[in-house]
Amino acid sequence: MPSTRSTTSGIAQEKTPMRRTTTSATVESDVSAPGTAVQSPMDSPRHSASSTSLSSLSSVDAAAEKKSNESVGKLVDTYGNTFEIPDFTIKDIHDAIPKHCFERSAIRSLSYVARDMVLLATTFYVFHNYVTPEYIPSKPARAGLWAIYTVLQGLFGTGIWVLAHECGHQAFSPSKTINNTVGWILHSSLLVPYFSWQMSHSKHHKATGHIERDMVFVPRTREEHASRIGRMVHELSELTEETPIATLIHLVGQQLIGWPLYIITNKTGHNYHERQREGRGKGKKNGLFTGVNHFNPSSPLYENKDAGKVLLSDLGVGLVIAGLVYLCQTFGTQNMLVWYFIPYLWVNHWLVAITFLQHTDPSLPHYTAEEWNFVRGAAATIDREFGFVGRHLLHGIIETHVLHHYVSTIPFYNADEATEAIKKVMGKHYRSDTAGGPAGFLKSLWTSSRMCQWVEPSAEAEGSGKGVLFFRNHNKIGTPPIKMSAHFISGFYISLSLAIRLVGVMINVSGSRGPRRGQVRLPCGNIPAVDGPDD
């Protein structure tokens, strides 16, 4: 059955019963926002767009383009479509955007904050005063209406979250003081540690699509996925499909507690904290009570100089928690559950769904350290469509995310125009999935969960092409994973061990981009070297 998703990148293979993703690309960089991106030495790309001039970025991109002319073999995404590595530069992107798109207005941005606050307050007033036994005697009817209340407040609250996100990128206004003050207040009200998140999110933008340094929804490698489900690497291509109920349970858990898990345990973020140059990440791994979180001033997500900002973020969240405790004592926990906590869960749901689908799609690549660069990483994102709600209540964060990853300081109200401008540069490398509108967006949650289980190279990749990774799954959907034999893997381990012993190679990359000492890089991930030294 032919593909039903429109595309501008490559020819859809008729054998693939999948929707296609349109392509063209937008690049976000902090290049226009000096001082807005906070990063650690560990997480700073060698050629970060936020710390490098456009001219030097152009030369870096030229080198990458020269490298891209080398044979990479045949790269195939999960839909079965041929993939080509982006060949434009960050300067091309920047030059294509009309200058007025970069203009930020504090008054205009504050008017959106006021509008969203009015929506929240008006909704509460109407429901609190009129969805009562006096006006609506039916208890089931009242319960249904209050359920609608939680959904509405969740959407309005997500709009507030997005405006705070604008503040974090300094896209809210030209004033850093206004941006950080408004952002701290808005994010704290939603129990988000503003500065702590701002710093880790900046690192995400500097390493988007980097398999070892990205900060959010970093996919598992084939080896990591096999380990997680208790299988050998070569067995993945032979496994029976995951039951739909298992996918559903995982998806519900992700949507309910995914955001709290991320800020408390760094779930879905990278786990290479030992490379932190200051040494605070030594022995640290993601998880509960490991110190790797957004509230700990000593977290390896930050540097020593960031402690004050982390504590200020904690103060904001602490004040809101104290206020919520007071309100629970005054008005009752049951009322607060409906008024605040269930809408808060809806905010979490939308935040996780949006972020997951911005960076997880069968058409998107990820890159190893050797093949990643800023332009490639920013193009490894996708725009989607959520209709009126997305463009007005959620301030276009779903529809213009590719642009946001090239120039994060462009305010959301100029993002549509800027997106159209960069499409001309990105061409086939721009990706969007607008089929079905809001229903299609929600359906993509299921599709991506079923199709995107781990990443690995394409079967026919050659040379540097083996550093371009695509999603695969054992659900027999889309491009099948590479078939590997146990005999081949066993022989590889033995040969590798002997080679290491003979040459006396001790891989030590503390503070660099390669595998950990005592590990060897395979296309499917990092594996412990036989008899390798301990860290």
Automatic annotation (TrEMBL):
Key words of the record: Membrane, Oxidoreductase, Transmembrane, Transmembrane helix
MF-aspect GO terms: oxidoreductase activity, acting on paired donors, with oxidation of a pair of donors resulting in the reduction of molecular oxygen to two molecules of water
Domain annotation Fatty acid desaturase: ranges: 146-432
Domain of life the protein comes from: Eukaryota
UniProt entry tagged with the keyword Membrane: yes
GO cellular component, one term: membrane
Residue span, Fatty acid desaturase N-terminal domain: 74-119
Main location as per UniProt: membrane
GO biological process terms on file: lipid metabolic process
KW Transmembrane helix (keyword) present: yes
Pathway recorded for this protein: Lipid metabolism
Region (Disordered): 1-56
InterPro entries given in the database record: FA_desaturase_dom, FAS_N, Fatty_acid_desaturase
Segments traversing the membrane: 112-131, 143-164, 310-332, 338-357, 486-507
Compositional bias annotation for Polar residues: 1-11, 19-29
Location in the cell: Membrane
Family assignment from sequence similarity: Belongs to the fatty acid desaturase type 1 family.
Name of this chain's protein: Delta(12) fatty acid desaturase
Native species: Pyricularia oryzae
Upper taxonomic lineage: Eukaryota, Fungi, Dikarya, Ascomycota, Pezizomycotina
